[in-house]
Design goal:
mainly alpha, 12 helices
Length: about 250
Amino acid sequence: MRIVQVAIYTLKETTRDRVFAASILFAALLIGGSAAVSPLAAGQQDKVVKDIGLASIAAIGVFLAVFIGVSLVHREMERRTIVTLLARPVGRAEYLIGKYLGVVLTLALNTAAMGTLFVLLVHFHLGTLAPGHVAAIYMIGVELAVIASFSVLFSVVSSPALGGLFTLALFFVGHLAEDVRTFASMLPAGAGRTSAEALAFLLPNLEMFNVKGMAVYGKPIGAGLLLWATAYACGIIVSSLFVASVAFRRKDLQ
């Protein structure tokens, strides 16, 4: 119950932020604008609208996940509200999990709003709406939940600026995880290969959530992939929040 209260408080706080409204407006302009520029791509109008639309949802979602997540703890420490919250019967782990869930709810609202606009545009403007488009939006939401767990972790162990850089770095490197694994397998046996394989094992494979290309080109996105990606994301989220909770217990909030 206390986790839910913290999550609701966080949701109200983040949705009141002007950045939240501005992100939805900017996404609406990008998604709507894709329909305006699509005639310039002769014979590729359908793909241009879908590509720009899905990329806009993902990019703005990542921006929100980083911007909101990395400043969670720091902002409340500056306002001294965190001391008041933790003086109540709210444990530090409960507080952190509640904060994370509040961020995820904010991202879910943002993704739902942008996704609805995208679905309406594809359905009424292009007339080619398919289940794969909805699946792609779902996978974007799942990836954003993972990125939010990274930003919450880095908000505990570093400053907002460094936390944002670390989260973005992990986001980009996570999409190159398969390339790192391939590179590690090509190295000669020895310490270098072992180190590269260890790094590849530890890196989250965020490219697993990238099915935008499949949706744009009409390739089927199976339920098995969706379930596996969701389970994989849950494992990463639990691990990130566990590390964040351990670090938060040792953090001096004074």
